[in-house]
Write a structure and sequence with these properties.
The structure is a single chain. The chain is built from eight helices and five strands, in the order E-E-H-E-H-H-E-E-H-H-H-H-H. It is of the alpha+beta class. Strand 1 and strand 2 form a beta hairpin. The termini are far apart.
Amino acid sequence: MDEAGRGPWAGPVVAAAVILPARLTALGAGGTTRRLLPVRIDDSKRLSPRQRALAYSLILKQAIVGIGIVPADSIDADNIRQATLQAMAKAVADLSIRPELVLVDGCDVPPVNLPCRPIIGGDRSSYPIACASIIAKVTRDRLMEFYHRLFPAYGFNRHKGYGTALHFHALRTYGPSALHRMTFAPVAAHALAAAA
């Protein structure tokens, strides 16, 4: 299990849980880069968009996948850590079979009634977690591309809600959208300025 979207100023946090067939779960000698699938599998941040898209398609064909999504208003209500744990719990609940053990990237474990093992840096050392990292990242990026069509002025298709100069300029010009995380400092500052 892994998540995408803890740091952006806008959009949801997305978690993915992936159960691979046993023949695909062995770790390569160099970590997650062993080609058990015929594409590179690694921490999603270490792959190009094209590599992620290819891996995403193959993982979906080979694995059981669960997705959990928590929107910006819930992030504001509960804080990003709690929202991330909720997204993870939703991802596990979305699986079509119940896992025996949940490997989680990071140091927190979701509120699920299953044994969990947190692994710091798991998206670089565990093949299944790397697969979950890719599913979560591509799912969230595609959501942000969809949201761009609803709110084109913000450039979500380019920065995916992360804090960039383009995003900062759009916030200053238009104020926050319904997708923005109002409790995140840069967004809150622009919301106050727009209200003044």
